[in-house]
Input
Amino acid sequence: MSEETTKEKEESKPSISFIEQFIIEDLKEGKNDGRIHTRFPPEPNGYLHIGHAKAICLDFGMAQKFGGKCNLRFDDTNPVKEEVEYIDSIKEDIRWLGFDWEEREFYASDYFGKLFDFAIDLIKRGLAYVDDQPADVISAQKGTLTQPGVISSFRKRSVAENLDLFYRMNEGEFEEGSRVLRAKIDMSSPNMLMRDPIIYRILKSPHHRTGEKWKVYPMYDFAHGQSDYFEGITHSLCTLEFEVHRPLYDWLIDQLKTSDYRPRQIEFNRLNLTYTMMSKRKLLELVLEGKVNGWDDPRMPTLCGLRRRGYTPESIRRFIDLIGYTKFEAINDVLLLEHAVREDLNIRVPRVFGVLDPLKVTITNYPRDKVEEVEIINNPEDESMGKRKVPFCNEVLIEREDFMENPPHKFFRLAPGAEVRLKGAYIIKCDSFRKNEKTGVVEEVFCTYDPATRSGGGTSDKKVKGTLHWVSARHAIDAEVRLYDRLFDHEDPAGQKDDDYRKFLNPDSLKILSDCKLEPSLRFAKPFDKFQFQRLGYFCVDYDSTKDHLVFNRTVSLKDTWAKMKK
RNA sequence: UGACCCAUGGUGUAAUUGGCAACACGUCGGAUUUUGGUUCCGCAGAGUCCUGGUUCGAGCCCAGGUGGGUCAACCA
Output
């Protein structure tokens, strides 16, 4: 084997995350009969965001890679916070991302019966007790980070009494907050979560799935690991903040297990992105306070927001792939996400002409009543996408910033005396222009064209530095275009101790342009159709769009080295 | 003043598990280009938080620091 092929082989070898290494080790050791079974466990209390995408890609990705399965499980143990409306959106987002849980759609509430039985079992084994003290007393008795807790006077309650009380708790005999069920573990554990954690509380709100059946509901710690166990999950992947929960997770599994099978919890770093935040609670605030226009506002990091913005599932998966899984709490540059969409959209979407801020150009030597159809390649990256025809006449519109009366050095666009190519059509030369006397604004530019320079004509080998996009003034269609910028102007808006994140809201995060002109082929564009507006960026039809009123969202601009040079 | 976790170019990750610190993004140059896009080529940028130890050899193992994160909801 030559040195080169060895090198290539090494380079193409994907690096493996610590999680994958754990899984491989477990497989080698023959754990759980060599099964791999994961789960994605959202709480139905909000919309999924790109941070969830990171978890989804891992959970489903590991299952796929090792020939296992991944369940979808709604962690619905708190009826007061959860709503059905979120369930459908969560399912839609997971499917959109490209993953399939097949028939394995589960709910933690499916296990309320089993969980209750397990609680009864713990009570019988002297491992759980009913505590009658109010929340503040229990909390105070928990001790502090440096001091051990105090043992509750109810800890020594008899099994019979505990049993009786717990059943009655569930019959609705007691008020919310009057009693809880606690696991009997260790009040002096250095891990606060092991100090007789509350495992059941009384809640009288109806549950979206079980209705009025239950009056006691399990806490997260008493539901999650057990649900994993009931479903035969082998690897329970979650974010770093659950690390301290792992001893409790394992303790409960130890009480539950009857064979060699046991699920293993592994924690990885949460996704943080610059110039945004992932807290569901804060995202909800933005929606409620009208700082954004709903959960699917294209500035939101939610999956529905990104989808509306024009992101593809492929680009999100690619991004997730690029950032990896570690135990380091990183803050990822949103630039990498933008790179990922550009990379994807570049190869798959057609190029079109759209002028956001039109300036009229009259070609004085082009016959007034003549209209030509010029043929333009849809995507230079992909021949198979074919060509289209675009009408051309003596009046065209160009981007206002593509003309300058007094151009700086290296300005390759239109200026008095300068020549540019109108892409796919002719080379034109600027002879003069007309300004509004009062405002000083340029209102019209007069050019002459060189008939020998028609694209593809081959009768002239004239070259010019600049090529502009354009639309025929007489054929162009109107559109509204929404330009988005980052929602916050601080890299880490939610991480500033002394400042509320609202202080960093970017006032220019949305710019609406209502006077844009597009080439006529866009007339029948449908919501979510994606295009590259030549020289400008990637745009996606918004669902606000109607037959008479086209609306586009800018997904991301093209890289702009000229803009960089100007700075 | 506790327990647990973490620390590698600007950012995010990698390093065949103790053997020449690599990749991506970003940056800067150049070539190509009927998109100042794309593509291609190249430069710069860390000696791996600190101190010590083990070792022929340490980013990796050990000890002690420093810095950061998580944990004291009847939330998940």
Observations:
- Residues 25-268 of chain A form a domain with the Rossmann fold fold (CATH 3.40.50.620).
- Chain A has three domains: 25-268, 280-350+479-566, 355-469.
